[in-house]
Structure formats: C-alpha cells, structure tokens
C-alpha cells in the first residue's frame, strides 16, 4: 500500500506487529526497489549484533510490551527487519525475535557458524591450507567477504570459510 510518492522515493507500510496495530512501521524504497528503514535510512533487512550479554525482545516497540524472548549471547548476530522510533524488530537464525531497543544493538558484524567443525582456510580457496576449525554455534567476527567466501575470526584464530557455513551475511553480499 503506497502512502506517498515524492522525488523518486516511495513510502510503503511494512507488516506491523499485530499486537501494536496503532504503530505504523515504515520502510523507504529507493527507485531500485531496495528497502531502507524510515528512521535510520539504512538497508532493511540488515545484520547487527547484540551489544551486551543480554537483550530482551518484546512483542511490540515499547517497554510496556511483554518480553517474548531473551537473547543471552554477547555478539549474537541478528537481522533487523523493521524500525520504529528507537526500536528495531530483529530475528535470529531461526526466525525468533521481537522488538529490541537500539541501544542494545551494535553495528559490529558477527556471524554464527552453522556447519560443525567448519574448516578455516588461509585463503578463500577449497584447496588452501586449513588453519583452524570452528564448532556449530560459535559466534565469530565477520571480516571481508567475496561472492562465495568470508573471512572470520574468533578464539584467537582467523581464516576463510564458505558463506554457506555461516549465518549473518546475505548470499550476494560482498564486504571489503
């Protein structure tokens, strides 16, 4: 449903949480169709991480809404799917989440290892030397990514892994 069209930008109403019908969640779409948050003008969806060791995910974008979920791992990668004022609707790898105050989130990019004992390689090549291995569920720092590989670090180790072995980066995303 288009709300307004001005200077090549279109405001479109996103899916509002059914529990907060009075809240209007807006996304801005540029002429290329890329969605941007109406509050931050950053891409939506996008990845962020949990700043502290605990973050309450609420049913709606205010402190008066019930807590549905508690994230308990510092650095946990989360996907921002909507914005409203100081609140961000986030999801984890499994789609669980809710509304979190922006002060609990960080722009530092992390990833979650999804493949058990994934091999970290010295170069983004399946024939490169193995420098370490990471377990499923490990939270790692996300570095540069090309079309198929990402450089990650954690636990004093760093190396390249296939994108398919981690969650926290889009399949077509390239990072320098």
TrEMBL record:
It comes from the Bacteria. Residues 45-108, 109-170 form the SH3b domain. This is SH3b domain-containing protein. It comes from Paracoccus sediminis.
């Amino acid at each position: 449903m288009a709300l307004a069209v001005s200077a090549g930008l279109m405001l479109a109403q996103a899916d509002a949480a059914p529990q907060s019908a009075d809240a209007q969640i807006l996304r801005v779409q540029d002429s290329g169709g890329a969605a941007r948050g109406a509050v931050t003008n950053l891409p939506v969806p996008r990845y962020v991480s949990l700043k502290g060791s605990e973050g309450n995910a609420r049913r709606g974008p205010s402190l008066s809404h019930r807590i549905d979920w508690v994230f308990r791992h510092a650095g946990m990668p989360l996907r921002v799917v909507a914005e409203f004022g100081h609140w961000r609707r986030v999801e984890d790898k499994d789609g669980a989440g809710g509304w979190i105050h922006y002060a609990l989130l960080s722009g530092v990019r992390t990833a979650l290892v999804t493949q058990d004992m994934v091999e970290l390689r010295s170069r983004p090549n399946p024939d490169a030397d193995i420098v370490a291995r990471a377990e499923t569920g490990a939270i790692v720092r996300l570095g540069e990514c090309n079309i198929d590989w990402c450089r990650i670090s954690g636990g004093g180790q760093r190396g390249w892994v296939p994108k398919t072995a981690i969650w926290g980066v889009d399949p077509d995303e390239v990072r320098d």
